[in-house]
Amino acid sequence: MDGVIINEVYHKDALIANRLKLKWNPLSLLEKKVVLHTLDIQDLNISALRQLLGEFKPNPNREKTPLQFDIVVKNGSVTVGKWLIGGVLIDSASLDVEKLVFNTKTRDFTNGTLNLEALSPLAKLNYQAQAKEKKIKGSGVLHATPYMWEKYRIPFETNTTVPIAVKEMTLSLFDIDITLE
Question: What is the pLDDT of residues 41-66, one digit of tens each?
Fold first, then answer.
């Protein structure tokens, strides 16, 4: 097993992450897999990542044969600082994954466990999910903050914690969609 730790990952003077730690097994390539035993990204800057990803343009002259291998993250952790998503400011977030498998040919997650925690001025979100059968399904709880009660003048006592069950959630770099029960 081999690995690398990179502190302060930049792209065009924009800090993408404070720390990137990867440990992998190159022999897994013989099985058409990229197995990351450890993936740890600290203080990921979503805005800088969006900018970097936006610079990748499709090549119309390239043959469109998809790569056919799995990406396996045995243990992964990503922390994110402040960012704006779907019009909501997120103060911080963390995502932990175990045994997450992504198939590059079908572009589906086929296995794994995910645990997402996010904090905003309006609410705190805890969401646990399983990846299987090409879907990520889970459940979670959304705790509204006193600021949310005050901002939207909801007639509850501000010191009362009312957890709201999260039925379904879709998250991307650009938007978040939460369905409540």
Answer: 999 998 888 888 888 877 777 776 66
